[in-house]
Amino acid sequence: MLSKAGACATLVALAAGTSLADIAYRTDFQLGAGPEWSDRTVDLAPLHGQRILGQFGNQTVRLNVPEVREGDLVRLDFDFCAIRTWDGNASGGVPEPDMFSVGVGGGPVLLAETFSVGDIDSRQRMSFGTGVSGAAANHSRWGAIANDSLGYPWLHRTLDATWRLSFEFLAPADGLEVWFRGSGLQELADESWGLDNVKVEAVTVPTQGSIALLGAGTIIMCRRRRH
């Protein structure tokens, strides 16, 4: 049971605007993809039996999370899997550059950068991680958390890379839509992408009025408990 002092401390924290995060959505696609996805294609990676949403090419895939409310502070986490010969901004195919983008329906574009899955010592460069959209300054696979871990074959080798991406933003409306897009890619057998370990956290941000009312109630309650 929470003590009187602990109860007061909890209310003070809430009055200050903090809140516990609610997990609005989470999946690793091991049991497939639900109707919240505009494309429910799930692929079994060749190595270790990992399932990912994909493979996709030059297309947009949407996730809908109706539980999120307008003004919620949202944290989006997911693994982006670039499969086979992503060239970043470098030559190596038409069309190019090889880009992955993420955005919020009715809201901001969170990411629009090129990625490369070539050898680190190659001439290929990618814009992700530079902090400047479109700048091609980093080497292939920069910032990847895993390399060739999915087992997708290319010629006589394995070629894939995984990045763990996180974004925070305010929900622009009730019912969140997040879109994911690949562009500039060649056919799926050459360049494709997928998603894994998708998580959406939503935190209700108190209004100024609710903070004032809660703060006043906190002061009164704590004073009474001192008697």
Architecture overview:
The protein is built from two helices and 15 strands. It is mainly β and 227 residues long. The protein folds into two domains: 1-19 and 206-227; 21-205, Jelly Rolls (Sandwich), CATH 2.60.120. A hairpin with a 2-residue loop joins strand 11 and strand 12. Helix 1 packs antiparallel against helix 2. It is globular and about 55 Å long. 34% of the residues are buried. The model is unreliable at 1-20 and 209-227 (pLDDT under 50).
What is the overall number of helices?
Answer: 2
Please report which band the strand proportion falls in: under 5%, 5-15%, 15-25%, 25-35%, 35-45% or over 45%.
35-45%
Distance between the first and last residues' Cα? 20 Å
Stretches with pLDDT under 50, minimum 5 residues? 1-20, 209-227
CATH fold group of the largest domain: Jelly Rolls
Structural class: mainly beta
List keywords for this structure.
4-stranded antiparallel beta sheet, 7-stranded antiparallel beta sheet, 2 domains, 227 residues, mainly beta, 15 strands, disordered N terminus, single chain
Q: Quick summary of this structure?
A:
The protein is mainly β and 227 residues long.
